[in-house]
Specification:
Pfam families: DUF4142 (PF13628). With 181 residues, the protein is mostly helical. The protein has six helices and no strands.
Length: 181
């Protein structure tokens, strides 16, 4: 009789253990689907990930296609900072929201790929450095103003000074290289 009782207890415990993960999955899935990400937040995740991905890929091109030490230094700085910003964005994204991994602006990168030397430098500084950061600032400011997800808004607030600094650095580099802005 005692052996039968132990066996039944083991079945109950095993059955409860098997059901618990399923219930947790259902609850997590329903929480995510019941609280979808607001459009402003979706737009921000897309824009921020594209901006950083483009910066990283364009900066890799700069290390290969530029001969200018100032441009290479700027590119190296952008690679480091935008890699960090991507990690911060992924950490701020709500559970179930995928931050695109490699969604660079193919048009921007395509316009740089065939260029070398000074022609590359000018296009890189203007399109990716100055214009890219101007667009990123607008996306981050929009998230701060219109975003609904508190963690994403905070990530945008925390990152905005870095993006603004990058914009200033790009403008300074453009002025140093004699590029009209």
């Amino acid at each position: 009789m005692r052996l039968n009782h132990v066996f039944m207890s083991a079945l109950v415990v095993a059955g409860t253990a098997a059901i618990t993960p399923l219930a947790a999955q259902t609850e997590a899935a329903s929480t995510t689907s019941a609280n979808p990400l607001a459009q402003a937040d979706k737009d921000f995740v897309q824009a921020a990930s594209m901006s950083s991905s483009t910066e990283i890929d364009a900066s890799k091109l700069a290390t290969a296609n530029s001969e200018d030490k100032d441009v290479k230094s700027f590119a190296h700085h952008m690679m480091l900072d935008h890699t960090k910003l991507t990690v911060q964005l992924k950490m701020a994204a709500p559970h179930g929201v995928t931050v695109p991994k490699d969604n660079s602006d193919t048009a921007a990168l395509g316009s740089l790929k065939g260029l070398k030397g000074k022609a590359f430098d000018q296009a890189y500084i203007s399109k990716v450095g100055v214009e890219g950061h101007k667009q990123a600032i607008a996306a981050f400011e929009k998230e701060i103003a219109d975003g609904q997800d508190a963690k994403l808004k905070k990530a945008a607030q925390d990152a905005l000074p870095t993006i603004q600094k990058h914009y200033q650095m790009a403008q300074d580099l453009a002025a140093k290289k004699g590029l009209a802005q």
